[in-house]
């Protein structure tokens, strides 16, 4: 009995230690910054870094000389099927988080466990916007032609596609509004690779300043505020 209790206490201590280590790294490692690449090329395309306080998105122009996102992500996939949109917000994350947890207050233990330990599926969340306004939750980032092309490639590779190369719409009533939609994605979400980690890596690919690693939106935004 004592031996069993000792094992339980030891395992509990290890788990608590790992949790403490994760919290420590999740808070302090994001302070280690990755600098933006130095370039003399003109900045021709404005993207935006956007957060809802939980999930972060990269917001791109719907149409540019390099890519027309409306052909890739049809506005007809949204509930509102609106028009006049100029921007598209794109984020990657755990499907359970996206569909069942729009805010931290709605987080379920079962969803958190599945997401944290590679047991869930991933999804892309796309939201159309007519205008973007800079504020504490939205930062404009100008890119060169080459930087934006790298970002386009990075984003497109995360979408899961059918044999015809089309993105796979997730038909759900769990959309956040009239102008967003969800799609199947590639990759596994985990406590080491979150939606915010994906966004942070997108900034690195685009040659922008970012955190060395971060699981949170704070870890990204602290480098832009």
Write a brief caption for the model:
This protein is of the alpha+beta class.
Helices and strands in order:
Elements: H1 2-28, E1 33-34, E2 43-51, E3 56-61, H2 69-72, E4 87-94, H3 95-100, H4 109-116, E5 122-129, E6 138-144, H5 145-156, E7 169-170, E8 180-184, H6 195-205, E9 210-211, H7 217-221
Antiparallel strand pairs: 1-9, 2-3, 2-6, 3-4, 4-5, 5-8, 7-8
Structural class: alpha+beta
Strand arrangement across the biggest beta sheet: 6-2-3-4-5-8-7
Gap from first CA to last CA:
55 Å
Order of helices and strands: HEEEHEHHEEHEEHEH
Query: What level of helicity do the residues show?
Result: 25-40%
In the predicted model, the low-confidence regions spanning at least 5 consecutive residues are: none
Rg, Cα atoms, Å? 19 Å
Beta-strand content? 15-25%
- The averaged pLDDT comes out at 88
What is the overall number of helices?
Answer: 7
